[in-house]
């Protein structure tokens, strides 16, 4: 199987890395803090490696699993090292008080990230409506994706399917605005009507 | 059972009115065009009535089931006739090309409507993430609600439950921003990943 690179070492990075390793991919974990990357790689199944922060990632698919507030600086640190990559933006753009979104009006975190990656890279929004601990439990969850480039979207869709999730395309990258709002709604639902963070959305079709 | 007033006579008005009548309420249908209100009332079960557009609605709960673009003028036409009412805003705030939301940045259609209703009225966002034809088919669908006033929210929650739906509170009325984005996402999902408008979201809890 091919290599998937994950930049980040937090809860979501661990959850996605866990499912990715279990699916048989080689997972390259990269963090600004090499010790954190190593710790996550050590927790994963055979085949996990660590990469050098800022160097060209081993995977053609690179999962940007860092807080949104730090995403722009990570992309800047990588610069041309992201040439030609399919970048999965999983960021949650909720404000610190979890009542609103920090992305600019009429845009989304994903669109802002797309503006600063190399022109040959493609950004796909995905995973941001799933809670890490729910994702880590397994199960065929629904995973919404938004992207402009059809090939990048198809590759991420195949990757998500291979993790045992159901990819659901909601449209172009501008639809990341709705997915990021949905991420915030999941938080609102957890704190209010559901009363638990053990929640996942699924779509009844037909 | 008590009376529920519905202002509007389109597909969503008919779908909600149908379930409301079936649940045993008296449904008061009101439209700018009395013939349309009468036609919808005639289609409903025994107990449906029509009301006079702009006059005090018979129901304590008033469902504003008109296009968002016309909602402000309806509220203005009613003025103080909405004093003390619980107003359910079901509007879809998608742009005509279905790619973005028309509500002002940092606000929602529901919040804009809340600004212009009488101070004694309470606005609750609900039903906007459900497609009318799916709602009309029946079934225990998930219905997300957002509102600031706890009593108004509790009343709408009880009403929604009585229709055989599962009410799910996502938070204060500012969360209508996320529900309206979710409404747009449902359209994106229907046009893309699902490939059908026969879709509904549900939440796996726990």
From TrEMBL, chains A, B:
Residue span(s) of domain Pyrroline-5-carboxylate reductase catalytic N-terminal: 3-92
Gene3D superfamilies: NAD(P)-binding Rossmann-like Domain
UniProt key word Cytoplasm: no
Species for this entry: Pseudomonas frederiksbergensis
Record keywords, A-Z: Oxidoreductase
GO molecular function ontology, one term from the record: oxidoreductase activity
Entry protein name: NADP oxidoreductase
Stored SUPFAM superfamilies: NAD(P)-binding Rossmann-fold domains
Pfam family, one: F420_oxidored
PANTHER family (alphabetical): DUDULIN-RELATED, REDUCTASE
Coiled-coil segments on the chain, per record: none
Lineage, broadest ranks: Bacteria, Pseudomonadati, Pseudomonadota, Gammaproteobacteria, Pseudomonadales
InterPro entries with a match to the protein in the record: NAD(P)-bd_dom_sf, P5C_Rdtase_cat_N, STEAP_metalloreductase
UniProt keyword Cell membrane present: no
Superkingdom, natural source: Bacteria
């Amino acid at each position: 199987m091919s290599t998937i690179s994950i930049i980040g070492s937090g809860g979501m990075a661990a959850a996605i890395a866990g499912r990715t390793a279990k699916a048989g991919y080689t997972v390259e974990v990269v963090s600004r803090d090499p010790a954190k990357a190593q710790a996550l790689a050590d927790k994963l199944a055979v085949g996990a490696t660590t990469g050098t922060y800022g160097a060209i990632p081993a995977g053609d698919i690179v999962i940007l699993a860092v807080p949104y507030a730090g995403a722009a600086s990570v992309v800047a640190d990588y610069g041309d090292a992201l040439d030609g990559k399919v970048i999965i933006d999983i960021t949650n753009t909720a404000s610190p008080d979890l009542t609103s979104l920090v992305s600019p009006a009429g845009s989304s975190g994903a669109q802002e990230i797309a503006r600063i990656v190399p022109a040959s890279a493609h950004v796909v929004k995905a995973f941001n409506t799933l809670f890490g601990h729910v994702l880590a439990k397994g199960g065929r969850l629904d995973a919404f994706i938004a992207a402009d480039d059809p090939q990048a979207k198809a590759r991420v869709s195949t990757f998500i399917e291979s993790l045992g999730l159901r990819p659901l395309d909601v449209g172009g990258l501008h639809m990341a605005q709705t997915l990021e709002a949905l991420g915030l709604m999941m938080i609102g639902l957890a704190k209010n009507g559901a009363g638990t963070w053990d929640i996942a959305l699924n779509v009844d079709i037909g």
